[in-house]
Each structure stands twice: as structure tokens, then as C-alpha cells.
Specification:
heterodimer; A: Ubiquitin-like (UB roll); FAD/NAD(P)-binding domain; 51 strands; 21% helix; elongated; B: Folate-binding fold
């Protein structure tokens, strides 16, 4: 079947055959092929089914704009749907599958949609599936989604690696065609730092499929020699297989490099794709031009191809597009193709030229039909004939391929990514890049310059000017001599063609045809943005690279205005689809986010801790012992043991901030709502930090270790936020204060030693006297351990309500000190306990956490109203705390809740309803913020924020959870369930 | 996607290193009118064009900066240390 491969011609290596499969069928291609060229060489015309009508589709282009030849490449986690066969380099063993067909590509049931097409026009689903509404989600959408679509994503994990990189340069050249190569060479020789990117596998762009000679060399050889010279320069980086997909502020360009998408088994030491962010002093857009399709009946039939694509398959890949091709052209480039086909031994059946006369003197064998158009095609899964409309009649000519040459549209996407709108040029009959772009220039085909010599010259001249702007000396630019047979590109666009009967496609990928555009205009959707959304023209993976200008031209014609008046839709990144893998980079799996482990993590693990993830931290949750069947049993044992003997808990993850400076006390006085200025040295104090809106931000204890040195603790979750906030206060609000802040969370291992026997255990390792007299409640100071072997900080603070201390030691000593404390307390019954027990202990004591400090709570709501300093002239939140809404009597207030029946339970998040009240939003009295089973009380206990709760102790309420269908009669009470007189703290 | 912030301490750095607080407003005096406080805490301009914001170089020098940027083009016109500006305003 490989009979379409020509014996000579092209850049493919006929000595290196490559085996691949398409829909399971084995085929052969050559080194240097794309999947598309290999399929064509195998005579494969039909490669896909269209989006809506499931029409047979072939290969339309030879590049990035391909709307039809989308296939799934690879298998398992490497399966990549919607791969453009025109961009996929062939490799040995490549597996490709066609998409959007069932049961097979050749026999596709979905093609029945074609019969329904009168009902499937633009906006059909807006009109058709309106009623009954519930069917939309259940029936219409699933059915439509199955019928209309592209490839399917793999559900398996991607086994490959991706990475991100930054690059910096003086000049970024986008596109390594004639313009880009000439520019890069000029700037590179002048010594500028140049990055040249091209989406193709080889630098050269159109040179690779051009038969011209440059300085006596074949165009492709010129491209190779030029890129070789560029690669030899230390100041030049050439990135192939790299698509610049976006232009962003700061002249930063996004680009994706497909490092290993052209190999069967990616090497594990390299990424498969690399996302570049390129910071460019200047950039030159040398992306060339896209050939414009012609809109005639059946222009989507396999075998119809862009003329430039046919040139590429012929000259670069050595593949004949057919044996009896015809050419439909509106300009002279069609004749160049005809001559090249004939030179390759392929006889052109006919050249259909829309103009009365050509600009070139064609002397080939093809029949010339002037002032004529192709208005239709015939054939099943491949073209068999064209219908030529000329002189008022229609003639059928048998062909097996058709090239269409409809003129050229500059590829200006990137130039429009920062808000600039394309400008219609009547002279060039094309949309050009917006003028006066900062940092980006457009040259060559992208600026509607035509002709090889002109592009080479323009690329060099623009680079020279940029180099001079950079202040570098620029050696004289060598003028190259070009011999080319390419005809001049005629600007006259051909929007509409007479005599069309079959569907004439405007947007191939979305199955939008001529009549859809007309319908949109008739129904009032003639604004280009509305027409796009109503017809879907210009959407999906190709983003209308081929269709947009034709759609605009047709709308303009229907409205009787110039395309300038219609304008374009908005160009946004990405130019072509970028994989999620590339955007994610290395942030997958366990690299998705960092893991934070306390310095006591290994100690906890050694003692059998069960860990829980809280934010980035792994915290020891409880420490099961043999014989315990549930976590509740372990937690109850730990709770009772703390109340009876002593427990040791890792609290290292609390945020710790050291605050120093001669104004440190004044600073704390301003960031906390309670007073800190006169906190004595050697004392700790509980502090409440507000936001400027008056609500509580965070809480914690802060100790004055020296006159001008404080040790602050924050909650675990808000540690980073508090640090940022304090820095804001110190730098922006009060820069005149002498204060220094340092995050010391990671420097200290901190452990709570709580329980009636805490002191006698701790005293065994602490050198100083820590009796109640010498070291009373809220004492805080640096202590010496083991006879001066180590120093730490000791705080007599208690979250559990017991006699308790927190000991901070340098992080690296954490594990040995924790072990030493367990050893010291062995005879006193010490046990490790985790955050579950910590939580039960604090709920029993009515201590709050961020469950209660939920961002809508002020100090008075928690019973801390008297803590707020009335005397301080200023603190964060002072002004707004006075608002009437924040002092209203019906504010939510902290209360305790217990079930009437101790056997019953309820959970956090449940709502509080007055007894007998219906469960409505208006009757909502508040909600349960924290709950736990309390071994001390012998039932579930909870904290809740309840409207006017402080005055409702003793009231019977209903705890209701609609989510779980639970309602539990309960009683509001004092939130302190254990030792309300705080006697145990002061022993 | 990839704007660069010219940090006065660290040079041009990617925006991912920064966190943005919002409008660079001056805090009212403690005894200012409640209207001023409402403005400061809740009300924001939403200009199309030039805008000054507090940015924190969280993963860099940890300084708070005043970034003057254009909300349309994202171009940054100026970037200075917020403390320096606050001090010079206090002198006025």
C-alpha cells in the first residue's frame, strides 16, 4: 500500500523504515515522517470522523492548524487524545487510534447524524432541548456528549515527568522559517543573547518544503546550515519542538517544549515536556502565514487539502497526494504547486483559477479552467470528482485529490494576547497585527510580507535594528541570492462561491458550515462574538486557525460591510493546546505539596502514633496500645491518664515567632487587643489578635523572656499568616517602631507535659526549681537541663486544665528529651497523647480553637470582653470593634451543650433550635462548633455558638442535623465542664 | 501568567513568590471618624488602569512593597519598599 511514496524527494530517510499501527493495522513509514505523512504514504485518506455529523475526514494541513486529523497516540497512562497527526513525529512502534467513531472508522453509526442535519444547525440545542428541563441533565446532555466529541482522556496516571524552566534573552525569535532564521543569524553573529523557538522538529519552516535555492543551496540545506551555525554559537539557544503559546506582561513568553513526545519509551532522566517562561528584551514574531481554505460544497471530503500542505507532503516528505490531483486556486501559488507536482511525476488533472488571468506563465500539462470555481466534490470516504462551476454551467472532473489555495492569513495570535486587536488591511486582504506593540515586532509572512527573498531580507533587517537598539555593533548583513519559482500571492479573497449544493464547511473541527453562518446573521447573532458562540465556529482545540477569517468574511458579506467592521474575536493564550502535565510540571504525587513533619515525628512514630494530616503537617493523633479496638478506647485512656497521672504531647507545630527590639512590647500592645506593655519579664500571657474589622484573627500565648525579647506562639494553621500580618504591621503600619521578627517554628521541638504528676517528672531533668512558688502558673523562662547539658524554654501554661508545662528544646534534641521525659515519668504513669486527646481535654475546659474563632466572632462572644483593653490608644481592630452590630445582645456566644440523655450523641456542625421550634433558617439559634465524648462527664459534650447563649444556660434545646437526619434533645450549659474554679492549674 | 515584579531588594522575581494584600491604603488614625474606618476596611476603588497595591515578597526578602501596576495591561510602573514610603509620608 506504500505506493504514494515517491522514489526520491524530501527529507525522509528511505533507509530507516519505521513500523506503526493505525487502528491496529500495521503500516510502515520513514524516519522524518509525521504520522500524517506516513498515513498518506500508505494511501490512508480517511483518518477521522467529524465532531457533529460524523462525516469522514482526512488530512487537511501539514501543521499546527490541523482541525481534522486528530488521533489518540499511545496507550495506558501515556495515551494522548486529540493529537494532531500533522504534528506527531513518527517513531518505531507508534500506536495511533482514530476518534469519535463507533463501531469503527469506516462504518460509523454516528454518521446518521448527517441525515438529521436539517435539525442540527447552529444553536439547535438551544432551541430543541428546552423542555422538559429535567431531561437536560439526565438524557440530552449525556447523549449529545457521547455523540459529539473528540478523544477520550486516559484514566490512568501519567507515568512521565514534566518540568518548568525560565530563560532570559535579548531577542526571542518565534518561528524558525526564513524570516526567523535570518533574524536569529543576524542577532547571533552580533553577539546578542538569542533564543530561537520553532514548533517543528527541524528548523526551517517553509524552507523545508520549498524548491527554491538560496545562495546556490537547496532551501532545506540552507535551513540546515543556518541552524547548525546558530547552534554552534554560545549566545544562541535553538529550541525545536517548542511552541510559543502566549505573550504575557513583562515581555514574558510561555512556551512548551515537547522533549520526548517523538520517542516510544521516554528516557527517565528527561522530562517528556518542558514548560518555558522566556523573559525577552525584545521578541520577533516570525510565525509566517496560514493558508486560507475555500468554502465550497464537500470541501471536507478526504483528499481535499490545503495547497501548501500538499507542497509539504510532496517536497518535504516525498509523498504524492494522489495520482490525479486538481488544484483550486485564487492566486499564483497554485501554479507553483502544479509545477512541482509535475516535476515529481504527478500529473495535475486541472487547475481551477477563480481569476480571469494568472500572474504567471504556466506551461504545464494541466488543463486550465479560468474564471471558474470548484463548487462541490463527489465521493464516499475519499474524493472521486470535483464539480467545476464556470460560464454558468457545472462540469464534473474525476480527481483523487484536490488542493485549495485561498490566500494567506498572517499568524498573529501572540501579538494579540495582550489586548491588541487585529487590523484589517484591505490592501493585503488580511488581518494584520495591531500596531505599536511594546517589546514585540512582527516580520515576514506574519506581517503579510510575501516572497522568500523579501522575508529573508526583512528578518535580517529587523534583527539588525534590534541589535543596534541593544547597543551592540552589528556586522554588515550578507545579502542572499534567491532563486524561486513561487508565484506572488494574490490578495483578492474569495468568500463565497456560486453553485454550492452540499455542506460547505467554514469550521471543519466544529462542523460549522456556510448555512450556519447565514442562520446566525438572520437570527440576529451577526456580532462576531455572538456568531462564534451561536455557531461554535472558531472554538475547540484548533481555535479557528483556519476558519476565523472565512467566518468573518462571510459575516461581512451577509451584512454588506467590510471585514474591518466585523472585526475578530479575542485571541487568548494558548496558541495550541498545552497539556495539563506541562502546566503542572513536577508538582504531582507526593511533590504536589510539601510535607511538614515535627521534630518529634519519629519519636511519635516510635511510640506507635496514628498520624493525621492537618494542613501540611502530620500530627500524632493518638497512640493505640495492644488490646484497644477503637480509637475511642485509646483516646479515653489517654484523657484519663492526663487527668490522673501525666501525659506528653507534641505541640511543635504551633507557630513560634521571636520578637525583639526596644519597641517590641509596644508593638505587641498594638497587635493584640489585650495589654502587653507591662507584661513582666518571665511571664506568659494569653493574647487575642484581631483583624482591622474587629473580628478575632488568632490567639496564642506570648512570653517575655527578656525586657526586649518575646516568644510568641500562634495556632498551627495561622502560623504563616500571623507572621505575614506582623511583618505588615511592623513595616507598613508602624515602621518607626524598633522591632524585629523571626519565625522560629522549625527551630524548636515543643512538648506539653500535663497532669498532676507533671512537675515531679519535669523536675528530674530541669535544673532550676520549678515548684509552684518558684515557677507559678504563667511563668516563662529559659531553663537549663541535665545539669547544664542543654538549655530550653519552659512555660507554665495549660490547654488541658491540668498542672501543665510546655518545654521547648532545640529541634535536634526533641526526640531524646521526649524519651528522657518518658523515662523520668515511667514510674509516674506518663503516656504520650495525641491531638484527639488534646481536643477532648480542651473541650472539657471550654478552651477555644479556630473551630470557635471562625472569622465572625469578637472577643465578647467568647467571654473575653473584659480582656479587651479599654485604655490602649490604638490596636489592630480597636476602631471597628465598637460597631453596634458587634456589641448587640443577640450575638452568638460561646456555651456548652450536653445531651439530655447521656446515651445520645450529636456531632459538630449540628444546628441549635429552640425547643419545639421548626427547623427553618429563621429559627436557627447557632451551631455546635466542637464536640467530643468526655470520660469525665460521661457523655458527649460540646461547645456551641448560640444567640445570646450566655444568658441561656440551663435551657433545653434541640440539636439538629438535617444532613444526617438527626435531632437530639440537649441542654445549654456553662462551657467549662471540668474544674471551673481552675484549682488544678495552680497546684 | 508570568509577570515579573521588580523587587527593590531582590531584583525582578516571578510573581509566584509574592502575595497580594490589596489596595495600598494609609491606615486612619485610631480616633478617626468611623466613616474613614469603614472606607479603609471595606471600600475599594476598582480602577481600570493605574492601581497601587501592597505586595509581600513572601518567598523572598519578606518585605512589604508598594507595587504600582496597570490593571489592564498588568505592566508594573513602580515598586518600592512600603516602609520607606510610610516613613516619608509620616514626615509630610
Amino acid at each position: 500500500m506504500s505506493s504514494y511514496r515517491l522514489p526520491k524527494r524530501g527529507l525522509v530517510d528511505r533507509n530507516v523504515p519505521l513500523s506503526f499501527t493505525f487502528d491496529g493495522r500495521p503500516m510502515q513509514g520513514l524516519e522524518g515522517d509525521t504520522l500524517a505523512s506516513a498515513l498518506l504514504a500508505n494511501g490512508r485518506m480517511l483518518v477521522g470522523r467529524s465532531f457533529k455529523y460524523h462525516r469522514p475526514r482526512g488530512i487537511l494541513t501539514a501543521g499546527a492548524a490541523e482541525p481534522n486529523a486528530l488521533v489518540t497516540v499511545g496507550r495506558g497512562g501515556r495515551a494522548e487524545p486529540n493529537t494532531r497527526a500533522t504534528m506527531q513525529e513518527l517513531y518505531e512502534g507508534l500506536e495511533a487510534r482514530s476518534q469519535n467513531r463507533w463501531p469503527s472508522l469506516a462504518f460509523d453509526i454516528g454518521a446518521l447524524n448527517g441525515l438529521l442535519s436539517p435539525f442540527l444547525g447552529a444553536g439547535f440545542y438551544y432551541k430543541t432541548f428546552m423542555w422538559p428541563a429535567p431531561l437536560w441533565e439526565k438524557l440530552y446532555e449525556p447523549v449529545i456528549r457521547r455523540a459529539a466529541g473528540l478523544g477520550k482522556a486516559s484514566y490512568e496516571a501519567d507515568p512521565d515527568a514534566y518540568e518548568k524552566s525560565w530563560a532570559h534573552c535579548d531577542l526571542l525569535v518565534i518561528g524558525a522559517g526564513p524570516t526567523g532564521l535570518a533574524a536569529a543569524l543576524t542577532a547571533g553573529r552580533a553577539g546578542a543573547r538569542v533564543i530561537l523557538v520553532d514548533e517543528g522538529s527541524l528548523p526551517g519552516g517553509s524552507l523545508l518544503s520549498d524548491t527554491a535555492t538560496i545562495d546556490g543551496k537547496a532551501a532545506a540545506d540552507f535551513a540546515r546550515d543556518t541552524s547548525d551555525e546558530l547552534r554552534s554559537m554560545p549566545n544562541v539557544q535553538v529550541l525545536v519542538r517548542t511552541t510559543a503559546f502566549g505573550w504575557y506582561d513583562g515581555n514574558v513568553f510561555g512556551a512548551v517544549e515537547r522533549v520526548q513526545k517523538h520517542v516510544r519509551e521516554p528516557a527517565s532522566h528527561l522530562p517528556v515536556e518542558r514548560l518555558w517562561r522566556i523573559v525577552a528584551g525584545k521578541a520577533l514574531l516570525a510565525t509566517g502565514a496560514e493558508e486560507r481554505p475555500l468554502v465550497f460544497g464537500g470541501n471536507d471530503r478526504p483528499g481535499v487539502m490545503m495547497a501548501g500542505a500538499m507542497r509539504a507532503y510532496l517536497n518535504r516528505y516525498g509523498v504524492a497526494p494522489g495520482r490525479t490531483p486538481a488544484i483550486f486556486t485564487t492566486n499564483d501559488t497554485g501554479y507553483t504547486l502544479a509545477q512541482e507536482l509535475e516535476a515529481a511525476g504527478v500529473d495535475v488533472v486541472a487547475i481551477v483559477d477563480s481569476r480571469p488571468a494568472a500572474g504567471v506563465d504556466y506551461r504545464g500539462k494541466a488543463r486550465l479552467v479560468r474564471e471558474a470555481v470548484v463548487c462541490g466534490t463527489k465521493g464516499g470516504k475519499a474524493i472521486s470528482a470535483i464539480e467545476v462551476h464556470h460560464g454558468g454551467r457545472t462540469e464534473t472532473i474525476a480527481v483523487d485529490a484536490l488542493a485549495m489555495a485561498g490566500g494567506f492569513d498572517p499568524i498573529i495570535h501572540l501579538a494579540c494576547h495582550r489586548g491588541g486587536k487585529p487590523v484589517w488591511s484591505a490592501e493585503k486582504a488580511a488581518f494584520l497585527a495591531p500596531g505599536s506593540l511594546k517589546g514585540l515586532e512582527v516580520a515576514g509572512g506574519a506581517a503579510a510580507t510575501t516572497g522568500l527573498a523579501a522575508c529573508l531580507g526583512e528578518g535580517a533587517a529587523r534583527a539588525e535594528a534590534i541589535v543596534r537598539e541593544l547597543g551592540l555593533p552589528c556586522p554588515p548583513v550578507a545579502v542572499v541570492k534567491v532563486e524561486s519559482e513561487e508565484g506572488i500571492r494574490s490578495p483578492a479573497p474569495l468568500w463565497s462561491i456560486p453553485g454550492i449544493k452540499d455542506k460547505a464547511f467554514v469550521d471543519f473541527q466544529n462542523d460549522v458550515h456556510l448555512k450556519d453562518i447565514g442562520l446566525a446573521v438572520r437570527e440576529g447573532y451577526s456580532h462576531v462574538e455572538l456568531a462564534k458562540r451561536y455557531t461554535t465556529s472558531g472554538m475547540a482545540t484548533d481555535q479557528g486557525k483556519l476558519s476565523n477569517v472565512n467566518a468573518i468574511g462571510l459575516i461581512a458579506k451577509a451584512r454588506g460591510v467590510s471585514p474591518a467592521e466585523v472585526g475578530t474575536t479575542t485571541f487568548r493564550p494558548f496558541y495550541t493546546p498545552v497539556s495539563f502535565g506541562a502546566l503542572t510540571g513536577a508538582h504531582t504525587g507526593h511533590h504536589f505539596q510539601p510535607v511538614r513533619k515535627s521534630p518529634l515525628h519519629d519519636w511519635a512514630k516510635k511510640h506507635g502514633a496514628v498520624f493525621v494530616e492537618t494542613g501540611l503537617w502530620y500530627r500524632s493523633s493518638w497512640f493505640p496500645r495492644s488490646g484497644e479496638r477503637t480509637w475511642r478506647e485509646s483516646v479515653e485512656r489517654e484523657v484519663l491518664n492526663v487527668r490522673k497521672n501525666a501525659g506528653l504531647c507534641d505541640v511543635s507545630m504551633l507557630g513560634k515567632i521571636e520578637i525583639t527590639g526596644s519597641d517590641a512590647a509596644e508593638f505587641l500592645n498594638r497587635v493584640y487587643c489585650n495589654a502587653f506593655l507591662k507584661l513582666p519579664v518571665g511571664k506568659a500571657r494569653y493574647g487575642l489578635m484581631l483583624r482591622e474589622d474587629g473580628f478575632i484573627y488568632d490567639d496564642g500565648t506570648t512570653s517575655r523572656l527578656e525586657e526586649n525579647r518575646f516568644f510568641m506562639t500562634t495556632t498551627t494553621a495561622y502560623a504563616a499568616g500571623v507572621m505575614n500580618h506582623l511583618e505588615f504591621c511592623a513595616q507598613v503600619l508602624w515602621p518607626q517602631l524598633d522591632v524585629r521578627l523571626a519565625s522560629i517554628t522549625d527551630q524548636w521541638a515543643q512538648m506539653a507535659i500535663a497532669g498532676p504528676k507533671a512537675r515531679m517528672i519535669l523536675q528530674k531533668i530541669v535544673d532550676e526549681d520549678i515548684s509552684d512558688a518558684a515557677f507559678p502558673f504563667l511563668a516563662a523562662k529559659e531553663v537549663s537541663l541535665f545539669g547544664g547539658a542543654l538549655h530550653g524554654c519552659l512555660f507554665r501554661i495549660s490547654f488541658s486544665g491540668e498542672l501543665a508545662y510546655e518545654l521547648a528544646v532545640p529541634a535536634g534534641y526533641g526526640e531524646s528529651i521526649a524519651d528522657a521525659l518518658l523515662e523520668a515519668g515511667k514510674d509516674h504513669g506518663i503516656m504520650p497523647y495525641g491531638v484527639e486527646t488534646l481536643s477532648v481535654l480542651r473541650i472539657e475546659k471550654g478552651h477555644v480553637t479556630h473551630n470557635e474563632i471562625n472569622g465572625t466572632i469578637v472577643p465578647a462572644d467568647l467571654g473575653f470582653g473584659k480582656m479587651v483593653s479599654a485604655g490602649k490608644p490604638d490596636f489592630v481592630g480597636k476602631a471597628m470593634l465598637q460597631r453596634e452590630g458587634l456589641t448587640a445582645p443577640d450575638r452568638p456566644q460561646l456555651v456548652g451543650v450536653v445531651p439530655l440523655d447521656p446515651q445520645q450523641s450529636f456531632r459538630s456542625g449540628s444546628h441549635i433550635l429552640a425547643k419545639g421550634a421548626a427547623a427553618t433558617l429563621e429559627n436557627d439559634e447557632g451551631y455546635v462548633t466542637s464536640s467530643a465524648y468526655s470520660p469525665h462527664v460521661g457523655s458527649t459534650i460540646a461547645l456551641a455558638l448560640v444567640r445570646n447563649g450566655r444568658n441561656r444556660h440551663g435551657e433545653e434545646v434541640l440539636v439538629w442535623s438535617g444532613l444526617h437526619g438527626e435531632s437530639t434533645p440537649a441542654r445549654l450549659c456553662n462551657p467549662v465542664f471540668f474544674d471551673p474554679q481552675n484549682e488544678r492549674l495552680h497546684v | 501568567m508570568a509577570s515579573l515584579v521588580p523587587c527593590p531588594n531582590c531584583g525582578r522575581r516571578p510573581k509566584e513568590e509574592f502575595t497580594i494584600k490589596g489596595a495600598a491604603l494609609s491606615r486612619p488614625e485610631a480616633d478617626a471618624d468611623s466613616i474613614d474606618w469603614f472606607d479603609y476596611v471595606y471600600l475599594r476603588e476598582n480602577p481600570r488602569g493605574a492601581y497601587e497595591e501592597y505586595w509581600h515578597h513572601t518567598s523572598g526578602c519578606r518585605r512589604w512593597l508598594v507595587v504600582a501596576r496597570d490593571t489592564v495591561t498588568h505592566e508594573i510602573a513602580a515598586c518600592c519598599d512600603a516602609a520607606g514610603r510610610a516613613r516619608s509620608e509620616a514626615r509630610k
